[in-house]
Design goal:
With 320 residues, the chain is mainly beta. Helix content is 8%, strand content 41%. It has helices spanning 131-136, 250-262, 267-271; strands at 15-17, 27-29, 35-38, 44-47, 53-56, 63-68, 74-78, 83-87, 93-97, 99-100, 103-104, 108-113, 119-123, 141-147, 150-158, 161-166, 172-177, 182-187, 198-200, 211-216, 222-226, 231-235, 241-245, 281-287, 293-298, 304-308. Residues 24-247 form the SMP-30/Gluconolactonase/LRE-like region domain.
């Protein structure tokens, strides 16, 4: 039986790391304990184990999902900017990718590096500004792969693609469709091409249960951020789901869902979902010497969340 079964967390047990962060959407943890988070004041902020902070890189539009390469550089998606940036450890930055087949990337959401140093990229929509795709329920999100052959699209026609990650064996690539709020998975062939998508896990995390970021643990469970419910849950290998914690506003979620269905949703409706204690958590990362310290980013909080998990996380490529 999984050590996570039955695990719940009182909101009062959640602690905070960092200060003055602006839209710290994604978190990367280094083996030595240094944290990196995307930060709209630049590209990313480094938080040392002793609490010292430094924001690096020029200001880019909505720095979002990130990955770290083996040299310790960050690969960062600029969602509103439609580009992939490489942020070197000394603060230098460069545009790594801004088009595929001569066409703009669109709203780039997330980057993931696998054990073969291949870069997987999720694009929420080809539309910029990206909110128009949320209003119109547009299904033009896609997943791209960058390897020794260059950049190419490997899955298309997705609904507001969010984070993408490979499992421990790298047999499947998992991808979030933010709306309606479900997880898909694709078999991964040796050449990087993908099989047909299949849904994995529940149809819904509850009303307004839009999925955002996720991470695997060492048992193969998937920890998922429910951004509008201000929560976190776990999808088990058998597809069942359990809530770990949440801070929802039911009436606001009801109203937002209606507006989503009739095409009148506005960015303010997302902001109104922010809870009294937690505000729009988006991502999760495992760190610490035993990989059991969890860190979560958000769209609205000036700090990161942190708590202890009953299981270790799956090490990412830069940790191995």
């Amino acid at each position: 039986m999984s050590s996570v079964r039955g695990f719940t967390l009182e909101l009062s047990r959640i602690e905070y790391v960092g200060q003055g962060l602006v839209r710290p959407e994604c978190v990367i943890v280094e083996p030595g304990g240094t944290l990196w988070t995307s930060d709209a004041r630049g590209i990313a902020t480094r938080i040392e184990p002793d609490g010292r902070q430094a924001t690096l890189g020029p200001e880019v539009p909505e720095p979002n999902g990130m990955a770290m390469d083996r040299q310790g550089n960050l690969i960062v998606a600029s969602m509103s900017g439609g580009k992939i940036h490489k942020l070197h450890r000394d603060g230098r930055s460069e545009v790594l990718l801004d088009s595929i087949d001569g066409k703009p990337l669109g709203a780039v959401n997330f980057c993931f590096i696998d054990s073969r140093d291949r870069l997987w990229i999720s694009v929420t929509t080809r539309h910029l500004p990206w909110w128009s795709a949320v209003v119109g329920s547009v299904r033009d999100g896609y997943i791209a792969l960058v390897d020794e052959k260059g950049a190419r699209i490997v899955a298309d026609g997705l609904s507001l693609t969010n984070e993408v990650r490979l499992d421990a064996a790298e047999r499947f690539l998992y991808a979030v469709e933010t709306v309606p709020g479900r997880l898909l998975r694709f078999s991964v062939r040796d050449d990087g091409s993908l099989g047909d998508p299949e849904q994995f896990g529940p149809d819904s995390l509850g009303i307004g249960g839009y999925m955002d970021g996720f991470a695997f643990d060492a048992e193969g469970n998937i920890w998922v951020a429910a951004v509008c419910r201000n929560g976190l849950g776990v999808i088990f290998p058998d597809g069942s789901y359990q809530t770990v914690f949440e801070d929802p506003r039911p009436a606001v979620l009801e109203a937002m869902t209606v507006k989503q269905r009739n095409g009148t949703i506005e960015p303010a409706d997302l902001g109104a979902c922010a809870g009294n204690t937690l505000q729009l958590p988006t991502s999760i990362a495992f760190g610490g010497p035993d990989l059991r310290t969890c860190y979560m980013g958000s769209l609205a909080m000036p700090h990161l969340l942190t708590f202890r998990a009953p299981v270790a996380g799956l090490p990412l490529a830069h940790m191995r």
